[in-house]
Design brief:
- The protein has 4 helices and no strands.
- It is mainly alpha-helical.
- It has one domain: Up-down Bundle (Multidrug efflux transporter AcrB transmembrane fold), CATH 1.20.1640.10.
- Helix 1 packs antiparallel against helix 4.
- The radius of gyration is 19 Å and the shape is elongated.
Amino acid sequence: MIGAVAGHMIMGYGLSVISLMGMLALSGVVINDALVLIDYANRRRREGMGAREAIVAAATRRLRPIMMTTMTTFLGLAPMIFETSRQARFMIPMAISLGFGMLFATVILLVLVPCLYLMLERLRERIHGRQLTTESLEPTR
C-alpha cells in the first residue's frame, strides 16, 4: 500500500475509490506471491533443509517468477499510467495503485518476507525449546 500511495504522490494524483480498487487487486497479487514463497520454503523444510537454507532456496527459486510478474504487470499498466487522454483519467488511479504498488511490494516480498520467516522460525524454536523437526512442519488437517 505504501508503494501505491507513493505512486500517487509521484504522479500527482489524489487517492480515490478507484485507487482503493487497485490496492485491493494489488493485495491479492502480493499475497499470492508471498504464499508461493513461503510454501516453497516449507516444502524444503519438510525435505530436511534448515530454515535459513530453505528460505534462501525459496527466494532464489521464486525470484524469476516474482520479477516476471512484477515487470509484466508494471509494463502492461505503463501505457495507462502515462496516458494523457480525458477518457483514461478515470482508470489511471487504479493503474497507478497496482503498478507502483507492485514495484514496491516486490522489494518488500524478496527482503522482508524471508527475514520475517527466519524470525518466526527462531521464535518457534525458543518457544518449543528445541530445533524444529520435519514432523513438526507437517500441515495440520
